[in-house]
Design a protein that fits this description.
2 copies of one chain form a homodimer.
Chain A: H1 13-16, H2 18-26, E1 35-37, E2 44-46, E3 53-63, H3 74-91, E4 95-105, H4 111-127, E5 131-139, E6 145-155, E7 170-174, H5 192-201, E8 204-209, H6 214-224, E9 228-231, H7 244-249, E10 256-260, H8 265-275, E11 281-288, E12 296-297
Parallel strand pairs in A: 4-5, 9-12
Antiparallel strand pairs in A: 1-2, 2-3, 3-6, 4-6, 7-10, 7-11, 8-10, 9-11
Helix pairs in contact in A: 3-4, 3-5
Chain lengths: 308, 308
């Protein structure tokens, strides 16, 4: 894709790719006096710099035929829709609070299906302490569309952005990556408890949740932190039965990717094992100074992974 | 539609109708300690009873083929999408603050079209003091879908619900009704300034914005206030060139419908004329005690208008 966006009227969204097109659309979004972080991180952050607590805002949608197949158990679809947004609040170190649900569905949709979808939403809401405070519905001439708007909060001192990483920081991921397409993506548990524990006990410099796969998301975190990175492919925590390429690119892992200063690594790893003995924590690499030569990556298989 | 929802697995959304189906879905939505108003009003209201200010939350979506035709100027579509949500904040007596934009569009969508849509969003945001703080995008295999999540705030003493009306209160509407389908619905101005002025100078007991037409919305306001109502059809402020049935049922007027105690009517009408000389304010009827005999309505043409 060489043409500059907007120059060629025939340019489509597919030509641009999501990162380019979102960056282009949200450029110049008004940053009011109380907008601490606007578009570009997992959540927007609202508040004044010295407030003790900040508000987090997130919106996220699942679309039939894109994020789930029509035959899918609607209860799992509802669960997933809310958990995706909760995962983004977790990735800021925050706590989710209030959710609004926007549903567009064909008039011929069975009410039982929509009810089951809401049952999944309620289940996730109860589990993670979210209050469902509103529902908006619309007719849709096309696929079922479910959008979640979620608010949350985070103590100022615990708020973690994507942009706080520094060269030399160690990079960690939770859990195992890959294989979400086999079904895990509908039942995943957002790493809310883990993220809260992390930000309460350690200085986490940068964090995000892995929704598009490490191959896409790690470069985003590094770029937000104005860093390069190196990765040790041999340490990649691959889901049993999956290939490393799947672990890198399947996406929808909803695990945490985060950066901490190397001097805390030993203490973090020991404390993690005691606190979450059943959840893997893997040091997969480090942030580096940016270099024009691109990022060092142990694997030669991931050229698309180079810094763009 | 006689069957009870959920009893018959073949029941569709069209069978139930929106009010029934939203009420059914949102029943038992967790009302956390800080949820003052959940589903069922124009916005959710968040806060503690004695807070000086409360937060308002609203989500609203427009769908291609339902709320606008594919050929429509995308700038007007963006304007409309944000203004619909602003209108709901206004109807609570509040001030809009931060918006998040969720867009689902086919990969083949021209980027220029999406850009124009965002230009309309920005225009509305600038005009009404809203900060656009995030954008989420998704592929859609179907129509273009645009969902807005909007936060706002309102002073506790100025917050107006649908449910505060009392028998005897006079009912007013702003502007003229009907004819939105001819194009007005894409360029309307949410009555933000008017609503703020109203709540600052008068005790408005109940208010909502007219999105589905007076024939659908007036019974909603009356029911929320546990009242019946009477209406004087001869006073209906019909848009020139429209029929009274259009004024009642076209919808998408985005005017205010509100209730005030009769002792304030003369002062309100006089002050309104001075403050908004170019915008009509019409007393269309009154809230009544509920009676099993249904509502008195001067027009015999609106049987669907009876209390359900």
């Amino acid at each position: 894709m060489k043409s500059r966006s907007g120059k060629n009227p025939a340019t489509t969204l597919a030509d641009l790719g999501e990162d380019r097109f979102v960056a282009d659309l949200t450029r110049g979004f008004a940053a009011g006096a109380d907008v601490l972080v606007g578009a570009g991180d997992d959540c927007a952050v609202i508040g004044r710099p010295r407030d003790r607590r900040w508000q987090l805002l997130k919106t996220d949608a699942v679309v039939e035929g894109v994020h789930f197949v029509p035959e899918e158990d609607p209860r799992r679809v509802g669960w997933k829709a809310l958990c995706r947004a909760i995962s983004d609040i977790a990735a800021m170190g925050g706590v989710p609070a209030h959710a609004l649900v926007t549903l567009a569905a064909a008039e011929t949709t069975a009410f039982a299906r929509v009810k089951a979808l809401y049952a999944g939403l309620r289940q996730a809401a109860r589990k993670y302490g979210v209050a469902l405070v509103g529902g908006e519905t619309s007719r849709s001439p096309g696929p079922l569309f479910l959008s979640i708007a979620l608010t949350g909060w985070v103590e100022r001192r615990h708020c973690v952005l994507r942009s706080g990483g520094r060269p030399g920081d160690s990079l960690y991921v939770t859990g195992r990556l890959g294989g979400a397409l086999a079904g895990k993506h509908l039942d995943f548990r957002p790493r809310l408890e883990e993220a809260r524990w992390l930000v309460s006990h350690f200085t986490v410099r940068a964090m995000m949740d892995l929704s598009d796969g490490l191959a896409a998301d790690l470069p985003r975190l590094a770029a937000a932190s104005r860093c390069g990175y190196s990765m040790d492919d041999n340490r990649l925590p691959v889901t049993p039965g999956c290939l490393p390429t799947q672990a890198m690119s399947d996406g929808e892992d909803y695990e945490l990717l985060f950066a901490v200063a190397p001097r805390f690594c030993a203490a973090l790893e020991a404390a993690w094992k005691r606190r979450f003995p059943r959840l893997l924590l893997t040091r997969i690499g480090a942030l580096k100074h940016r270099s024009k030569a691109g990022n060092r990556n142990a694997s030669r298989g991931y050229d698309h992974f180079a810094q763009r």
